[in-house]
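TA notes, week 10

Several of you asked for a full example with nothing omitted. So below is the full record: structure tokens for the whole chain, then the designed sequence directly under it. When grading your own attempts, check the secondary structure regions first.
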């Protein structure tokens, strides 16, 4: 009896061990399936339409999708209907202060008080524009027709990027109506960004990380960046101007300004901002370091 009991017990023990092996194998199989098909890292991808622009964010860090979307919308909505009537809030003051800074940095090529000039030129009328930038120092702004078309998108986007920095969101690429801003790359390498002609054809490929690129085109369509406040005229002499800079505000400022400047004047300006530029007209002219960003 003892022998039979020992044999039966050993047989039962073997069955239990075999059963456990099958369970372990099954669990391993399920884990493999989950890793391959259900544990893929979700990439945040969302587009927003503000100020007549389409702004697209692609974020490779792990984020709360809904919360990030809400925060981005909240920032853009702050500047959606700018109204400087009555008492100015902190948002209004900061935007006006930035407008003053741009005026002096660009020697008057970017002037947020040029709204009336923009309106007249759109209507096909001549207008002898005189800057009201000095009125901003005294908050004497009631009769100023402002023009923020050139800067409002990049200004609000920069605020979003500041939110990213505060919340340790570092891996991203942003397209603001074609202007590109990149953070850290999500893998080894850099973001490849096409430099397109106005017809959409690819002129070259730039490789960017923690850089911004802004491009201005010669178009038949009227664009505010074509208006030169210093001459009170529309200007459209370059087929394209492309700028690569350290941040989106600088890239946007330089692209808007260089589009109105002569090349030599533009080279002097861009030298002060650790940036690179390319002008395309009958010939292509680049600053010395522009090619370092391009595909070999």
């Amino acid at each position: 009896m003892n022998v039979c009991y020992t044999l039966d017990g050993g047989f039962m023990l073997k069955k239990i061990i075999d059963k456990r092996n099958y369970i372990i194998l099954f669990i391993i199989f399920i884990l493999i399936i989950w890793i391959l098909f259900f544990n893929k890292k979700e990439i945040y991808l969302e587009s927003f339409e503000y100020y007549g622009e389409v702004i697209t964010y692609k974020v490779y860090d792990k984020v709360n999708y809904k919360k990030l979307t809400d925060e981005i919308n909240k920032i853009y909505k702050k500047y959606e209907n700018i109204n400087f009537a009555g008492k100015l809030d902190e948002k209004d003051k900061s935007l006006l202060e930035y407008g003053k800074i741009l005026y002096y940095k660009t020697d008057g090529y970017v002037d947020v008080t040029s709204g009336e000039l923009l309106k007249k030129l759109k209507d096909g009328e001549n207008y002898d524009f005189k800057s009201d930038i000095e009125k901003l120092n005294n908050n004497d702004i009631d009769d100023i027709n402002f023009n923020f078309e050139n800067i409002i998108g990049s200004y609000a986007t920069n605020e979003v990027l500041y939110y990213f920095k505060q919340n340790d969101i570092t891996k991203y690429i942003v397209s603001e109506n074609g202007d590109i801003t990149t953070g850290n790359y999500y893998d080894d390498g850099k973001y490849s960004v096409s430099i397109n002609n106005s017809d959409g054809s690819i002129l070259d490929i730039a490789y960017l990380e923690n850089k911004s690129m802004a491009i201005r085109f010669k178009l038949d369509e009227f664009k505010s960046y074509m208006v030169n406040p210093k001459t009170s005229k529309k200007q459209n002499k370059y087929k394209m101007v492309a700028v690569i800079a350290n941040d989106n505000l600088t890239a946007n400022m330089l692209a808007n300004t260089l589009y109105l400047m002569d090349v030599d004047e533009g080279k002097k300006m861009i030298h002060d901002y650790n940036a690179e530029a390319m002008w395309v007209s009958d010939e292509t002219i680049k600053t010395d370091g522009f090619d370092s960003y391009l595909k070999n």
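Residues 212 and 248 are 5 Å apart (CA to CA). Use that as a sanity check on your answer.
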